[in-house]
Amino acid sequence: MAAAACQLPGLPGMYGLGIRIAVYTQWLGAVLMSHVDESSLPNVRILGLLLSASIALSLVLHIADKALQAAEIYITLLLGTGIYLPLVPVYLVRGLTLWHPRWDPLCWSTEKSAPAVAIGNLSLLLSMASVGVWFHATFLPAASPGDCVQYAFFLFFKVSLYHEASVAFHVILYLCMILVCAEIIMRKAGFRVKNWRQARRRFRRARSSRYNHDYTWKIICTFSNTTVVCILIAAVEFTVRWNRLGGGVNSFDTAAQIIPALLSIVCVARVVFHSYREFVRGSESDDSSTPPVCYHTIVAPPSCPTVPSHAPSPFSSSSSSLREDLPYDWTKTFRGQAVDVKTPSRAHTA
């Protein structure tokens, strides 16, 4: 006879509905801004760093007090590492292509983050991955399921949290995260393979002419990020439901749940609105700053001044000196822009 699911008391302050909404909003906002406007993406990343750092600190404190069940640690790990899990397919592609820059999605990204934010993300990822390895490799094998079983979301199925395949998969996943952190540290320290360095130099020279390739990678990354985020949200919500967590973890009637949700929604909405406003202003400035282009032809266009036939040309060979007081405006086009020419060039005056 199969064991019954546990009725866990639950901790709303760790993974309550308001906290989950705040985290989900940041995840979806990061996916949206990575596709629409990567220049505004660091603001959403900072919000995710703060949320994940708060969840990680609370997790470590509760683990030290031995106040969490296995399912609760599993849920908290998903919430804390969710901002980094969309990078798993990216680094999988990098490894399969041997870090070739043409097939490296990160080489086509224009996102720029502050050094302090990058160090914070690296430290948080390394610490959370270490906790994940400890939880699945040490805590779960030593724990006894008892009379009831705690469940987890694994490959779209409801499996026991102590299942060998689930434990092995998560151990490998968190170990790969630690290896990625080590690769980033080595790369920042200057360690690079010679062939990769030469390929990246050729890539930088040819990147400007590969707009279609850039846009294709953006579409693929957006689809991948959306898929991973949807799987993470489903994993958290199904795990909460299957383990019948109580204590009001699905209630939204306290300030501890309303405040983080509203702050996250307002921050993401502000970034989206600011990006849209900058886009509108840029479009208006481009339309207003485009100068009218006049061409010196036999029949002048209506927008250009008509030049009399007896007007002296500044490019004629009879000009013996530079003339600054020409009575007519002579224009020519240079790379699509109108340039006012009032004096002859050196080649024509020689």
UniProtKB/TrEMBL annotation:
It comes from the Eukaryota. The chain crosses the membrane at residues 17-34, 46-64, 70-93, 114-135, 167-186, 215-235, 255-273. Keywords: Membrane, Transmembrane, Transmembrane helix. It comes from Hapsidospora chrysogenum (strain ATCC 11550 / CBS 779.69 / DSM 880 / IAM 14645 / JCM 23072 / IMI 49137) (Acremonium chrysogenum). This is Uncharacterized protein.
